[in-house]
């Protein structure tokens, strides 16, 4: 769940931590709820990761 927070000043990080403990996966400013970053894990789960394929090249 996403929660909008404003007006808490220096207490904002502590409030964000408390909200995370209650299940909030995103704490942002009001007005930003509708536009999460593309890589934001929706409800705590990655959205784009299942679509990605990873490869590695190891030097010999």
- Strand content is 5-15%
Largest sheet: 2 strands, parallel
Helix content: 10-25%
Mean pLDDT figure: 88
Residue runs with pLDDT of under 50 for 5 or more positions: none
Tally of separate helices: 1
Q: Tell me the total number of β-strands.
A: 2
Shape: elongated
> What strand order characterises the main sheet?
1-2
The succession of helices and strands, N to C, reads EHE
Whole-number radius of gyration?
16 Å
Q: Alpha-carbon distance between the termini?
A: 46 Å
Secondary-structure-based class equals alpha+beta
**How many domain modules?**
1
Descriptive notes:
With 60 residues, this protein is of the alpha+beta class. The chain has one domain (2-51). Helix content is 17%, strand content 10%. The protein has 1 helix and 2 strands. Strands 1-2 form a two-stranded parallel ribbon. The chain is elongated, with a radius of gyration of 16 Å. The termini are far apart.
Task: Tag the structure with descriptive keywords.
single chain, 60 residues, alpha+beta, two-stranded parallel ribbon, 1 helix, elongated
Layout of helices and strands:
Elements (H helix, E strand, L loop, with lengths): L1 E3 L7 H10 L4 E3 L32
In short:
With 60 residues, the chain is α+β, with helices and mostly antiparallel strands.
